[in-house]
TrEMBL record:
Residues 16-300 form the NADP-dependent oxidoreductase domain. Keywords: Oxidoreductase. This is Aldo/keto reductase. The keyword Hydrolase does not apply. Signal peptide: none annotated. PANTHER family: NAD(P)-LINKED OXIDOREDUCTASE SUPERFAMILY PROTEIN, NADH-SPECIFIC METHYLGLYOXAL REDUCTASE-RELATED. Gene3D superfamilies: NADP-dependent oxidoreductase domain (3.20.20.100). InterPro entries: AKR_Detox_Biosynth, NAD(P)_OxRdtase_dom_sf, NADP_OxRdtase_dom. The keyword Mitochondrion does not apply.
Amino acid sequence: MKFRKLGRTGLEVSVVGVGTWQFGGEWGLNYTQAEADAILDKAAELHINLIDTAECYGDHLSESFIGDYLSRRKREDWIVATKFGHQFHDLFSRTDAFKPEEVLAQLDASLKALRTDYVDLYQFHSGPDQVFDNDDLWTLLDKQVQAGKIRHLGISIGSNDNLHQTAQATKVNADVIQVVYNRLDRVPEQRVFPSCEEQNLGVLARVPLASGYLSGKYKPGAEFQQNDVRNNHDAEQRNEKLKLVEEIRRNEVPEGVPMAEWALAWCLQHPAVTSVIPGCKTPEQVESNARAADLELSVEKA
């Protein structure tokens, strides 16, 4: 495994992390603690130290799996990133909750679920500009940093062209931007990444496998399980993406290299990107994801 400094935080994070939206039940599987443990144990074995979760991956459900695991391991071995701003109601159903008093309650609930006294990275979660531009919110968060509940603040931008929030990261004392970035979606290269580099922000690339489309497992016309978030995608657009994936596989992926590993390594080639945070349903997928670190220097941009 390779490691990079997460912007100006000083944290050394593995270039491949573990995304845990799947633990919340919206990717076709319901997890047991033993299954979550197996995924995180494999990550630890491979020297992955970054876990990304959120308040609304289930009602703090993903965090609870992680917290149970961490309670039986060394907390200091892990960099835990979670998020705030949404109230989970049911699968694919949540509402915004960005008022300062709501965020404070979410933070305390996240700390309880994670069974920890602090989170390493607490991220504004895909909220609109009008709630982002609330000085009272960032004043509250700064106080939580001073109290030791939060080590660093971040912004998980909803639109991957949201320069408004990215450009104000330093002003609100945020050190990290999380953004959708993958071979099918290169929008951040135009405006977001230059702003991140100018401010020395860490960058976490989420959805680096394009919701699994770049995993190499799916062909045009593929169907997904009922409680899989990809069923909410437009069917025509889904098939167009899968056709493009086939072209990329033929023209860009070196022979003998698994497409998923190549796709993660492709993201890591951009100098602004610190780490990719792919989801993983099994320990085997964690192992495949980790191998992308070894491909990092051998992949060229198209």
